[in-house]
Amino acid sequence: TIMDIPYWSMIPALSSSRQEREKLVVWPRLFASLAWFITGTYGLHIVGELGNGNQGDGFFNVAMLIAVLFVMSAFLIARNVKEKAAPANAKPAEKFSFKDVLTIIGKNDQLKALIGTVLSFQIANLLVGGFAIYYFSYALGNAELFPVYMAVAGAAEVAGVFLFPRLAAFLPRKLLWPIACGFPILSCVLLLLMGFIAPANALMIGMAGAAIKFGVGIANALQTVMLADVVDYGEHKTGRRSESVIFSVQTMLVKFAGAAGGFIVGVGLSIVGYVPNVEQSASTIMGLEFMMIGLPAIMMTISGVIYQRYYHLHEGFNKEEAEQQTQVESVPAQA
Question: Which residues constitute the domain of residue 174?
Answer without folding.
Answer: 104-319
